[in-house]
Write a structure and sequence with these properties.
The protein folds into 2 domains: 262 residues, Methylamine Dehydrogenase, Chain H; 109 residues, Serine Threonine Protein Phosphatase 5, Tetratricopeptide repeat. The protein is 18% helix and 38% strand. Strand 27 and strand 28 form a beta hairpin. The longest helix has 13 residues.
Length: 475
């Protein structure tokens, strides 16, 4: 039997770094990104903010700050502080105040939604405050004042807001809250309520759900990514993971919406989804539950790949683990845990345990994972020998780590006789490669020769400008 397909490890133990157990919880600890852990605690009657840099965790920074909430920037040593309605942004390294603003309403939740912007939730509305020009975007435009984006939906009244997420272009936004189910004795104990908002349409949709994320995926034959919204909910009758397309583009294939069961063991009667992260590299949804279970789903098909318990304690905060395309989370014991795909095991696991060749090929292609190389080679050979050069070209183009994108493959396509009135197989191959992205050095050189012979240097310059061809052809 193949080992579990996840790489799971404890990155830190916060109590070993001097964090008090009573300070480890949703109200006092924030994890805005995989870079910093920020904790508010009281030591000998003195209030402090503790900052742990994940790149230098043993160098714990403590500051005498009595804020009601503190959130570290995603990447820079910059902290946002809230005391009642007063908001302040400080650059820790420069010891300088960056921005300050006095809200006219109480803030119930806030978080960094991008390197420049904080999302601010009040009892009545959601605001965006573009308050900081990060080191990665020093020329970014900033503002002294938060801007109202939308009003809160009535379905979230009285909810504890636990998350707020936006798409990279900030056109779609989702607010997530939970509340105790006191009105329906037959209902699930904890009710999840979400408000999905389209900025372009100015329309909100209330949805029952506990955890949500936005995602992008490149579907077979598509020239661009498809945008998706995925969310999970548990009710008295069961639990589901839903994936739906948003902002469909007419030139892209349609994504068929998915609704798949989320399994909870009999002993986890009160367990429910609390967090979700989606790995774009692997096209995998990581779903975490309150009781410490993790579920992995294939984003494209909705297939459940794996589930297991990773923590005996409540996981109360998570974020993307950018270094591994995985997920990082903290439990009430103070364990900082990471889960990602085990690159050596994932594909053999899907083939042997799930017996799903199609899924193995898709994830191997998307993530460049080993374990399915022979499947790609056999499939390529079968299609090529049968004369399906277009199909063979697609297999070669999608092969993991480019194992079939070699000079030998180019020679095979060049050696096929061209049928009168039809596009040559080698040009079909290059066309499919260009649709998928950048050419490697062999492909760039091979394509450059006939283009330059025909005096079409401008076409080559166009590909270079679009980052389709390797600059090696000019060196």
């Amino acid at each position: 039997m193949v080992d579990r397909p996840i790489a799971f490890q404890e990155l830190l133990q916060l109590t070993a770094l001097g964090i008090q157990p009573g300070s480890i919880g949703f109200a006092t600890l924030t994890l805005e990104s995989d870079r910093f852990v920020c904790v508010r605690e009281e030591v000998n009657g003195a209030k402090q903010v503790v900052i742990i840099d994940m790149l230098d965790p043993n160098n714990v920074v403590r500051r005498p700050i009595s804020a009601e909430s503190a959130i570290m920037h995603l990447d820079d040593k910059v902290i946002a502080l809230r005391a009642q309605r007063q908001l302040q942004i400080f650059n820790i390294e420069q010891k300088a105040k960056v921005r300050a603003h006095l809200m006219h309403e109480d803030v119930t939740f806030w978080k960094w939604i991008s390197p420049t912007t904080i999302g601010i939730v009040t009892e009545t509305a959601v605001y965006h405050w573009t308050c900081y020009a990060p080191s990665s975007q020093p020329d970014a435009q900033t503002s002294d004042t938060p801007v109202k984006v939308f009003d809160r939906h009535a379905s979230l009244a009285g909810n504890q807001i636990i998350n707020y997420r936006v798409t990279p272009d900030e056109k779609w936004l989702v607010l997530v809250g939970i509340s105790s189910n006191t009105t329906n004795p037959a209902g699930f104990k904890v009710k999840g309520a979400m408000q999905l908002y389209s900025k372009e349409r100015g329309v909100s949709q209330p949805i029952e759900g506990h955890a949500a994320s936005f995602a992008e995926i490149r579907l077979e034959g598509a020239s661009d990514d498809t945008k998706l919204f995925t969310f999970a909910v548990r009710t008295a009758t069961g639990a589901k993971l839903h994936v739906v397309e948003i902002d469909h583009q007419a030139n892209l294939p349609a994504y068929a919406k998915k609704a798949v069961d989320v399994f909870f063991p009999p002993e986890a009667t009160n367990d429910f989804p609390v967090a979700m992260q989606v790995s774009k590299r692997y096209g995998i949804v990581y779903l975490v539950t309150k009781y410490g279970f993790i579920h992995l789903y294939d984003l494209e098909s909705g297939a459940c790949i794996y589930m297991n318990r990773i923590s005996g304690e409540t996981m109360f905060t998570t974020c993307e683990h950018r270094a591994t395309s995985g997920i990082i989370g903290i439990n009430r014991k103070g364990q900082v845990l990471s889960v990602t795909v085990d690159e050596e095991v994932m594909i053999p696991y899907i083939l042997s345990t799930l017996n799903n060749t199609e899924l193995a090929i898709r994830i191997a292609s998307r993530g460049g994972l080993p374990g399915a190389d022979d499947l790609f080679q056999r499939q390529f050979a079968q299609l090529f020998q049968s004369g399906d050069y277009s199909g063979a070209a697609k297999v070669a183009a999608g092969s993991p780590r480019g194992i079939l994108r070699t000079s030998q493959t180019i020679d095979m396509f060049k050696g096929v006789p061209v049928q009168q009135g039809q596009l040559s197989p080698i040009l079909q191959y290059f066309g499919i490669l260009l649709e998928r992205g950048k050419l490697n050095k062999y492909e760039s050189l091979e394509l450059a020769r006939p283009v330059l012979v025909q005096g079409r240097k401008q076409l080559l310059e166009k590909w270079l400008k679009e980052d389709k061809a390797s600059t090696l052809i000019f060196t």
